[in-house]
Write a structure and sequence with these properties.
Length: 284
């Protein structure tokens, strides 16, 4: 039995492997298929898809959109979008612009705190892809301002911390809309980061997302407890949603986490991909 991993990051966002490298790595690990789901960008997909073709390995075009949400954070996964779709590209271009304005302001805030990091250093840490807070965190770590990657977020970068800067986000409805317009399938990523106030609040929130076009929930995720997995499964069954899963592998930051297996507990069958394809084909 071969497995899949439908949540992965590359150097196009904040992962440490290039799209080609992660495709080759997934194949070497004996996986059957992967989805590349970089934050707010599809820039890595052309390369990843081409590498998959070249070495005979199935790569699903994906994305992970950060959407507007009052508490916690909401991420929406999109699978199987047409990466050349003009509306999708226009929306993502808008998000790129928002990041380009935000990142230098984070550096300015750090400088005002007496921390000597430059925007050039952050750009360098990004490896040429999209820039985000994890790249700032790496610079802070390298230069000895923090002792660990999580500490960089705790002290400086997380919402409400000393160098936090707000970023424009589309609403869930808008995000689902542009994923769907580009013929993609929208799935709620790791629902546990929504910080909902209990199960019934999560349920009514989900009902709303389903009305807006949501097709699935990421049930299997390394940071979900057994109870959460059970709850998300129940909700998925109740609302006829797909159940997807992935490791959110970025490379080096999360101790002991690896592609395909998470921390040893993930075994995601290819039938998940077939489910996504069936939903995609139905709405074509
Ligand atoms: P950005 O795209 O700049 O908003 O950064 C978001 C990314 O930073 C997330 O997708 C994670 O990879 C990472 N991140 C966010 N919060 C934390 C945290 N508390 N600890 C470690 N990494 C985090
Ligand atoms: Fe990330
Ligand atoms: Fe996420
Ligand atoms: Zn992710």
């Amino acid at each position: 039995m071969k497995y899949v991993d439908l949540h992965l990051h590359t150097t196009a966002s904040d992962g440490v492997m290039t799209p080609s490298e992660i495709v080759r790595y997934a194949k070497s690990k004996g996986l059957q298929a992967i989805a590349i789901t970089d934050h707010d960008t599809i820039e890595g997909l052309e390369e990843g898809l081409a590498e998959g073709e070249k070495i005979g390995f199935e790569v699903i075009p994906g994305i992970e959109i950060s959407a507007e949400h009052s508490s916690g954070s909401m991420h929406l996964l999109g699978f199987f979008m047409d990466i050349h779709h003009p509306f999708l590209n226009e929306r993502l271009g808008y998000l790129q612009k928002a990041r380009a304005e935000r990142n230098p302001r984070i550096v300015e805030k750090l400088n005002r705190l007496g921390i000597e990091v430059t925007y050039e250093e952050v750009v360098k840490a990004s490896g040429g892809g999209q820039i985000g807070r994890p790249h700032v965190a790496r610079v802070l770590l390298e230069k000895g301002y923090v002792r660990s990657f999580p500490e960089a977020f705790e002290r400086f970068l997380k919402k409400g911390a000393l160098a936090y800067v707000e970023k424009f986000r589309f609403t869930a409805k808008e995000s689902i809309h542009f994923i769907e317009e580009a013929k993609g399938v929208a799935v709620l990523a790791h629902p546990n980061t929504l910080n909902m106030n209990g199960y019934s609040e999560l349920e009514s929130f989900l009902q709303q997302l389903v009305k807006e076009g949501l097709k699935g929930i990421e049930v299997y995720y390394p940071e979900h407890s057994a109870l959460e997995v059970a709850q998300y499964k129940t909700l998925a069954e109740r609302y006829g949603l797909l159940m997807t899963g992935g490791t959110d592998y970025h490379g080096i930051e999360k101790n002991g986490l690896d592609i395909g297996v998470g921390r040893g507990e993930m075994k995601l069958p290819y039938s998940i991909v077939e489910g996504l394809k069936a939903v995609r084909d139905k709405s074509l």
